[in-house]
Amino acid sequence: MMNQKGDFGVETPQKFAERNALPIKDILLLNRALTHRSFLNENPEALEDNERLEFLGDAVLDYIVGAWLYHHFPEMAEGDLTRLRAALVKTDQLAHFGNQIGIGRALRLGRGEEENGGRNRRAMLCGAFEALIGALCLDAGMEAVDAFVSPFLNTAVVEILTDQRDKDPKSLLQEIVQAGGKPAPNYKVVAEDGPDHAKIFEVEVYANGDLLGHGVGSSKHEASMDAAQKALDNLEYL
Question: Is residue 114 flagged as an active site residue?
Answer without folding.
Answer: no
